[in-house]
User: Fold this.
Amino acid sequence: MKNVISDVEDRLRAGDSKLTARRELVLKVLLENSDKHLSAEEVYNLVKRRAPEMGLATVYRALELFQEFDIIHAIDFGDGRKRYEFGSGKGKIHHHHHLICTKCGGITEVNEDLLEDLENRVSRQHHFTITDHQLKIFGICRQCTGK
Assistant:
């Protein structure tokens, strides 16, 4: 975790920003829950346990800043709420997709690039430089199917 925090601090400093104590707390909550796709409100509730004085607006500003520096990115899984996960970093290609259960709202990551062939074909045919893609597959998870 220390390495990630140090890397984030360096990236922010290079962009004339800094990692304040409050921003670091938001970052730590995201790191500790990196296996989840937290909404801003969920991040806020977790931060609030450690820093009751921190406001929701501060959490939103930290999330916006982290997005601006491609530390995290927001995804809408069809429920109208942005959820956050760590970005792939500048110049790197994002290679995972999401399965979203329409009953329980569960999210499962598929950690392989399912669209590489399609991306290459589209890029060649349309002379289009693809920088990223997202694939969201909606259905019913194993637990909900069994109910």
Summary: The domain at 93-147 is CATH 3.30.1490.190 (Dna Ligase; domain 1). Residues 3 and 67 are 19 Å apart (CA to CA). The chain has six helices and six strands.
